[in-house]
């Protein structure tokens, strides 16, 4: 299962839920199967709303039912194709700087409003924003450019 985010509230009276998604560029497919708190739901619609994504689920038709889903995790069964870097892709991977020096391994991912931040633990702990300016490649190992990081 791949973690997408958490239901943070209900929206309106027709049963839409607000998802705080950790992947802002994730594209939901019509009729996609998602799991909330382990139960399977079918997506009817998804649209952005402020800092969240509103989900309409075929099985949820009232605000009361939507409120019952609050604070539950949202996952999907299969990793979709695309450019999204998933937490599962980077946790425990080795990180090297632009000169090929070993910096440590990713031990945690901190979610911030702007972007996720990798916590790299090695000789010292380094916080690296998970954005293209710093993270250059994610593969068997992670290559980063730390030249612009503040000491």
UniProtKB/TrEMBL annotation:
Subcellular location(s) of the protein: Cytoplasm
Gene3D superfamilies xrefs: PRC-barrel domain, RimM
Domain of life of the native organism: Bacteria
Keyword Chaperone assigned: yes
GO biological process per UniProt: ribosomal small subunit biogenesis; rRNA processing
Major location category of this protein: cytoplasm
Boundaries of every Ribosome maturation factor RimM PRC barrel domain copy: 95-140
Record bears the keyword Cytoplasm: yes
Annotated GO MF terms: ribosome binding
Job description of the protein: An accessory protein needed during the final step in the assembly of 30S ribosomal subunit, possibly for assembly of the head region. Essential for efficient processing of 16S rRNA. May be needed both before and after RbfA during the maturation of 16S rRNA. It has affinity for free ribosomal 30S subunits but not for 70S ribosomes.
PANTHER family referenced in this protein's UniProt entry, alphabetically: RIBOSOME MATURATION FACTOR RIMM
Protein name per the record: Ribosome maturation factor RimM
């Amino acid at each position: 299962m791949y973690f997408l985010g958490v239901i943070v509230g209900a929206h309106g009276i027709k049963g839409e839920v607000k998802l705080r998604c950790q992947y802002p560029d994730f594209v939901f497919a019509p009729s996609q199967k998602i799991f909330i708190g382990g139960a399977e739901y079918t997506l009817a619609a998804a649209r952005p709303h402020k800092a969240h994504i509103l989900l309409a689920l075929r099985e949820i038709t009232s605000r009361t039912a939507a409120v019952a889903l609050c604070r539950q995790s949202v996952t999907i069964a299969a990793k979709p194709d695309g450019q999204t870097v998933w937490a599962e892709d980077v946790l425990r991977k080795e990180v090297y700087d632009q000169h090929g020096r070993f910096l440590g391994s990713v031990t945690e991912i901190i979610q911030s409003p702007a972007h996720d931040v990798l916590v790299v633990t090695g000789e010292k702990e380094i916080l690296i924003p998970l954005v293209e300016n710093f993270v250059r490649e994610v593969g068997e190992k992670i290559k980063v450019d730390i030249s612009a990081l503040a000491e």
